[in-house]
Amino acid sequence: MRRASLKDVAARAGVGLGTASRVMNGSKNVKPITREKVLKAVEELNYHPNSIARSLKINSTKSLGILLTDLKNGFDTEIVRGIEAEAGKADYSLFLTNTNKERSKMLSCIKSFVEKNVDGIIIIGGEITEVFYTSIRQFRIPLITISCESNIKPEGQYASITIDNEQAAYEAVEYLIKKGHRRIAMISGEKDEMNGGIPRIKGYQRALDRYKIPLREEYLMEGNYTFLSGYERAKQMLALSERPTAIFAASDAMAVGAEKALLESGVRIPDEIAVFGFDGLDFAEYVYPSLSTVVQPRYEMGVLAVQCMLEFLDAKESKASKVIVRHQLTVRESG
After folding, report:
1. Which residues are 148's β-sheet partners?
2. Interval 193-245: pLDDT, tens
3. 185 has which bridge partners?
4. Calpha distance 126→124 (Å, rounded)
5. Residues 6+ away with beta carbon under 8 Å from 108
6. Rounded to the nearest 10 degrees, what angle do helices 32-45 and 6-13 cross at?
7. Rounded Cα–Cα distance for residues 98 and 119 (Å)
8. According to the model, what pLDDT value does residue 293 have?
9. Counting CB atoms within 10 angstroms of each CB, which of 111, 172, 253, 304 has the fewest?
């Protein structure tokens, strides 16, 4: 018995082949009554699409390239879980690679994804410079970035998913101020970094300005988001003639490093010095004292990225957009 084709389905449903194809591809641009006719024909004819032939015909491999910029920091893992879960629902496979924050590797990783003929690329963390974006644009491939700020003017199938880093930092510092702290130090990320560096420092400064607290230069120390940098900067803060009574760190890893330094020095947390982190990583709940932190909805950001990507792939033409997702403050023992 001959296997039913999509053309057979279209004939049985009384629609054009293109309409039947859009229904099978999950397009939203089909009337409900038409969709119902096509799906009924699919059932009656026991139609099963040939996925290999389909991918060749529409030039789709049903795969996505995921570029991680710093896998060891723990921030990316929950995002990847969200991406994997949502991509799996649509039968998409993933190619993952990690640059370990080496910017020179990013373009070569993108090229390797293009050679694999992925349908779209998702970049987690880091920065997108004008030069890098121009290089990506030549491949004409949909691009989604997560927690990845830039100073570019994107075009076409590009979406950025992030929290409002400046506002999140502002709210964390404001919380410490309302707890009675006036000597609030910050362990920042790299001061010229566009995602976690510049905006989180601005939020810290804005909160101090709002409550008329002078900014003390010795209280603003630069780290690099690692446990060790948080530990070392906290040690330096303890050596100041006037110690801060609270430390706001621009990552949970730095905040936990700061906690270790304080505890080693006999400082009682939060009675003598409070500590507030950023990111909402899983370990923040289990360290001692448990860490107060700004929580980024990382799993949801991963899910949203795939949903945006599928809309790009379905629509074929889309305008660039920036999606701001909501953060939240989680207060625990350290703050």
Report:
1. none
2. 888 899 999 999 999 999 999 999 999 999 999 999 999 999 999 999 999 99
3. 247
4. 7
5. none
6. 120
7. 19
8. 98
9. 111
Query: Quick one: which of 236, 237, 249, 234 has its CA closest to 187?
Result: 249
Q: What pLDDT, in 10s, does the model give residues 279-332?
A: 999 999 999 999 999 999 999 999 999 999 998 888 766 778 889 999 999 999
Q: Token pair 């795939």 is at which residue? A: 306
Q: What is the pLDDT of residues 43-102, one digit of tens each?
A: 888 776 654 444 444 567 899 999 998 777 678 999 999 999 999 999 999 999 988 777
Query: Residue 241: CB partners within 8 Å, gap ≥ 6?
Result: none
Other beta carbons less than 10 A from residue 233's beta carbon: 24
Q: Answer for the pair 278, 171: CB distance below 8 angstroms, yes or no.
A: no
Amino acid at position 24, single letter: M
The helix/strand/coil state of 10 is helix
Cis peptide before 289 (omega within 30 of 0): yes
Amino acid at 183: R
Q: Which of 47-56, 132-141, 157-166 has the lowest mean pLDDT?
A: 47-56
pTM, two decimal places = 0.80
Output the six-digit token pair for 95: 């190619």
For residue 57, how many other CB atoms are within 10 A of its CB? 11
- Helices marked H in the chain — which ranges? 6-13, 17-24, 32-45, 51-57, 75-89, 103-115, 130-137, 165-178, 198-210, 227-238, 252-264, 298-315
Determine what percent of the chain is predicted with pLDDT higher than 90: 59
Sheet holding 143-146, edge to edge: 93-98, 63-68, 120-124, 143-146, 158-162, 321-324
Q: What is the pLDDT of residue 49?
A: 62
Render the burial of 317-333: b for 16+ CB within 10 Å, e for the rest: ebeeeeeebebebbebe
Q: Please say whether the dihedral angle defined by the alpha carbons of residues 18, 21, 26 and 32, taken in this order, is positive or negative.
A: positive
DSSP 76-101: HHHHHHHHHHHHHHTT-EEEEEE-TT
